[in-house]
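Work Package 3 committed the consortium to producing structural models of liganded targets before the mid-term review. Because experimental data for this complex are still outstanding, the team generated a predictive model from sequence and the ligand definition alone, so that downstream docking and mutagenesis planning could proceed in parallel. The input record is reproduced below exactly as it was submitted to the modelling pipeline, together with the SMILES string for zinc ion.
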Amino acid sequence: MPVDTELYDLLGVSPNASEDEIKKAYRKKAKEHHPVQNRDDPGAAARFQEMAAAYEILSQPETKGMYDQFGMEGLSGGRGGGMDPNDIFQMFGGFSFGFDSGPGGFGSARRKKGQDSVIPYEVTLEDLYNGKSVKMNLEKDALCSVCSGSGAKGNAKPKKCVKCEGKGWTFVHSQVGRNQIGTSRAMCTECDGQGEKLREKDRCKKCKGSRTVKEKTRQELSIERGMANQQRIILAGAGDEEPGIPPGDVVFVLKQTPHDSFQRSGNDLLTAVHITLSEALFGFSRILVTHLDGRGIHVSSPPGKIIKPGESIVAKGEGMPVYKHPDTRGDLYIVFRIDMPGEEWLNTVDRAQLEALLPPKRVDVEPRPAVVDEAQFELSDIADARGRAFPTSSDFFDHGDEDEWEDDDDDDDDDEPECRTQ
Ligand SMILES: [Zn+2]
Ligand SMILES: [Zn+2]
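The resulting structure, written out as tokens with the ligand in place, is given here.
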């Protein structure tokens, strides 16, 4: 009586079963539990593998003898190998073989559909605002039309693989230590784990037995208004075809290129507009922004309002269209940059008169410091000084990161997109 009957139990036979009975039992079980027949049962593949492994051991006198005498321990590299005898299938280490090895064999038996094709697609902010439809040519694996995906010529049938006797894998014994034999399995190289193989002369002429051919297809990609950067557009079933399973999908991933004038945050937009000193003081009524759809956005400032540097306004409902609800839109934030007049201008006016009109200059601080040194007036590049002299964690010059402007009233960062000239 064997010390362990688990493998016999798996095949549903008695430990006294003959070679022939074991073989018959395995064939019946394998058919019943084959993953292709049990696609909706996630455990089927694992059970199938366990039975195949059990049969592999019990069908060979050498390994059967070791199992009967010592149990799984006897097959794990000698007695007392330190392995848990209950953990029988872990010992074989190689049980995951083939299942992730790509097309064919056990791999395709487990996969529920063909490979998805993931394609990055560059879009502009205008595309996401206005929507866009793009037609393009793609190449995919399609089932061969000549052999309907069988890979065979006419009615030729694949022959059972001689090397693995139709199992798709072979049992490999190797020396793992002194007087110890390790046992592992490897996918059959002769049939790539299929268990059967078409003879050269039986292969379909068009696909040469590979069952699929490259095919050009024309696809239409619909970029809807309000879609987001990184959003995925899935063309279901437009991907690669494989025999016996539904085709994969084509998945486009939108990648928005940076915009010269606008930044997007959710459904809101941010832009910066330069106004003159005169406009800041006395107001304006003009087209401030050309929008992403080419419309001019006209704004009149309220009478008597002085616009200070970095101040912002919000144009409600002038942001991005909301995805799937394009009639609803976010808001457009406009940050003001005030252009000071140049020296040439100063030379054309009566300075004394202008100075008298403007608010008075400041006088020295009170109380006056006991020691006062004179420093040179030297123009500097603040961005340069910031990079060189201040640690990156310093927020001395920072007024909020440009990526965090959302919900931030303090919008006067220095890195907003360039203003458009208009
Ligand atoms: Zn084979
Ligand atoms: Zn073919």
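Reviewers should note the following from the model. The two ends are 95 Å apart (CA to CA). These observations will guide the Year 2 experiments.
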